[in-house]
Specification:
heterodimer; A: 492 residues; alpha+beta; five-stranded mixed sheet; five-stranded antiparallel sheet; 13 helices; 18 strands; 21% strand; B: 200 residues; mainly alpha; 9 helices; globular
Chain lengths: 492, 200
């Protein structure tokens, strides 16, 4: 490495004004025309990179996207339904919670599948071949059991509009059920972890019992169950429509405000109530966004009671949402399905250990994969807990069947170039696709092995494509080469 | 963060669309520029910009005012881009072909020669950027476009400042070599004085 090469990182930092001690570099620059020229090139490069002229449609495109993203939800939250539903002038608050559109059989097996992870895993367990290392978190989980006791996989269909899910289907179900709201007790026991309260619940204040009626429609097959709350004050019918101020009072009873996540504590100012609870002013969007961020991960209940500005601008008319309960309990309302294939749940980071995966067949993709119910919010929260690049899978949103691809990558700090070594095989055994993408194989006669350098993304992609049927040893080398190496055993 | 900006954020977080639109106006050019340099084409850059601001909109209520708003927005932008590129990599293992590269419209006030040169420069720059791994492209783009400090970039990308320095340096040098291979070394291709020239 030449003297100039040694100065390269500092030269780059110097260009960016990030070099604290620049004396040595500047002394070198004073005597080195080549480095001065390079510095100038770097500056030009910066200018070229920064020279981007956005298209005229940029702003409109962004705002259209934002509007589309939040308008449907706003309507959904405040979907005031037919006036005949609860009362002539009742406002109907609909919050679709939970999603039962596709019942999944619990635990099933690989059956005759030939090209899926679980099958290979199963085979390995029974053939004495060393299985890939599982994370400690999966020690007691079901996918370990599946290797010795398996059932027929169930057919799982990717959710889409044709399945009768989504807003239209949900709204239709709501409409259909409005005239005959069922009792709270009709909600399934295995539905919401903490049931909403009935009108006679001791947890309701006298004020709420006296002023509000509560009705819950029964769960609708294949859609979800909804909470429909109504009130009978004609004057407030439209108080909480999309354009209202959406001012709410948020009551909590069963826990102290400081047991909430820090974001809640910072954003909401709670004051004690006469009933022994706490109350905070908020607005519906803020509250539900906050709730969404922690969807299913908080214990306890939230209670909301709304008040909205009357036309005269008064704000003291308490209306709507009779002790409307939002349940924040782990796993309470899985709204999406997370599909993984090509590897087992046991290979997921430890923080995912709480998820229950079902091995099932599908009518798409490779035909067999693992499925877990999970809310999108829960999913992203779990991802946020660690490096999301280590997670892979498809995330199906119950509303629009969005997919979420996240590629497996080596841990942070590792280079992307890996050494892949194969023992005891001929290159002709490899699929053409692999040979096309990894052409530079080298044979080592002394150890009778083939090796190549391969990009991490490529190898993981291949790994997924071939469902763990690739063999050999994959070695990561650390960035800079000073730390150790890691080994990934691909399935024999 | 100025008091005015703080108020704007609070209003936007409370659902004030006008306030949010002002925030969009404030950051859209930078976000688009990052997206364009990361994705390499206008169509994807538009979509990535849109996705970025949708995420910003959804996340605003949880903005903690601990980091600067710009760092936070750019962090979201670059992560949206990185996610996108990972998806792209997984879906197809081909680099961006030159035919796919769309060129931005040059400044209309420039003369024809510099216009053509700019187009050539930009085309080759896009092709050269596409050869960099996203993890190298991101810090370089953030540094060059936004002027963020290495510490801010490190925070946004969740890596060490030293890693930012190393990646920016390596990315720059690789780009420089790549452009030189194409005979488009920045100072050489710029024949007019305003674009500089050989420094030797």
């Amino acid at each position: 490495m030449s003297l100039c090469d040694q100065y390269l990182p500092d030269l780059s930092a110097w260009i960016d004004g990030e070099l604290k001690d620049s004396q040595a570099l500047e002394a070198h620059l004073a005597t080195c025309a080549s480095c001065r020229a390079r510095a100038e090139e770097y500056r030009k490069l910066n200018a070229m990179i920064a020279a981007v002229e956005p298209p005229a449609a940029l702003h409109r495109h962004i705002m259209q996207g934002v509007d589309n993203a939040h308008s449907p939800k706003a309507k959904r939250r405040f979907a005031f339904g037919s006036a005949t539903a609860v009362a002539a002038a009742a406002a109907v608050l609909v919050l679709a919670i939970g999603s039962g559109w596709i019942p999944l059989a619990h635990r099933s097996d690989p059956g005759d599948a030939k090209s899926n992870t679980a099958m290979n895993y199963y085979s390995m367990q029974n053939s004495g071949v060393e299985a890939p290392a599982l994370s400690p978190a999966d020690a007691n989980s079901e996918y370990r059991e599946i290797t010795t006791d398996v059932d027929e996989p169930t057919l799982w269909s990717a959710p889409n509009a044709a399945n009768g899910v989504g807003e239209n289907a949900s709204d239709a179900a709501i409409e259909a059920d409005m005239d005959a709201p069922a009792a709270v007790e009709a909600l399934p026991e295995d539905g919401i972890a903490d049931q909403p309260y009935g009108a006679s619940s001791e947890k309701l204040t006298e004020d709420a019992v006296a002023n509000f009626s509560i009705a819950y429609n029964s769960p609708t097959p294949d859609v979800s169950y909804e909470i429909v709350a109504g009130y009978s004050d004609d004057a407030q019918t439209n108080a909480l429509d999309e354009d209202s101020s959406q001012i709410l009072l948020w009551y909590i009873y069963d826990y102290q405000p400081d047991s909430l996540p820090a974001e809640f504590v910072q954003r909401f100012s709670f004051t004690p109530t006469e009933g022994g609870g706490f109350c905070a002013d908020t607005d519906f969007d803020t509250l539900t966004t906050a709730y969404g961020e922690y969807y299913g991960l908080l214990g306890g209940d939230l209670y909301g009671k709304a008040r909205a500005e009357a036309e005269e601008g008064e704000t003291d008319q308490i209306i709507l949402m009779p002790r409307y309960a939002l349940t924040l309990s782990p796993g309470a309302e899985p709204a999406s399905y997370w599909l993984i294939e090509g590897y087992t749940p046991g290979e997921l980071p430890e923080s995912f250990a709480g998820l229950e995966f079902t091995y099932t067949s599908t009518d798409f993709g490779s035909g067999y994969l693992w499925v877990a119910q999970i809310s999108i919010e829960h999913f992203h929260l779990m991802l946020a807990a660690h490096d999301d690049s280590q997670v892979d899978g498809l995330l199906y949103d119950s509303e629009d069947a969005q997919t979420c691809y996240i590629i497996l990558l080596p841990p942070d700090g590792w280079t992307e170039q890996l050494v892949w070594t194969l023992y005891g095989v001929s290159l002709s055994d490899l699929p053409d696709e692999i040979l096309a993408n990894c052409p530079n194989w080298e044979f080592h006669e002394d150890e009778a092995r083939w090796s190549t350098t391969i990009n991490a993304n490529m190898v993981f992609w291949l790994y997924l494509q071939y469902g763990g049927q690739l063999g050999g040893e994959l070695v990561f080398s650390s960035e800079g080469g000073e730390s150790g190496t890691g080994v990934l055993n691909l399935y024999p | 963060m100025t008091e005015q900006e703080r108020q704007l954020v609070e209003q936007a977080a409370a659902g004030d669309n006008d306030a949010f639109e002002r925030l969009v106006t404030q950051y859209e050019k930078m976000v688009y520029s990052i997206a364009f340099r990361m994705a390499g084409n206008e169509e994807d850059a538009l979509d990535l910009s849109q996705e970025t601001f949708i995420k910003v909109w959804k996340s605003l209520p949880f903005f903690k005012f601990e980091a600067s708003l710009s760092t936070w927005v750019y962090r979201i932008a670059v992560n949206v881009c990185l996610d996108f590129l990972r998806q792209q990599k997984r879906r197809r293992f081909t680099t961006i072909s030159e035919d796919e590269i769309r060129l931005e419209l040059p400044d209309q006030s420039q003369d024809l020669e510099s216009t053509v040169l700019d187009r050539v420069e930009q085309k080759e720059l896009i092709a050269a950027l596409a050869t960099l791994e996203p993890e190298f492209r991101a810090p370089l783009a953030m540094s060059a476009i936004t002027g963020m400090s290495y510490r801010e970039i490190a925070e946004a990308l969740d890596i060490q400042p030293g890693t930012v320095k190393s990646r920016v340096s390596r990315a720059r040098e690789r780009l420089r070599k790549k452009l030189s291979e194409h005979g488009n070394r920045p100072p050489i291709c710029a024949s007019n004085k305003t674009k500089g020239g050989e420094d030797a």
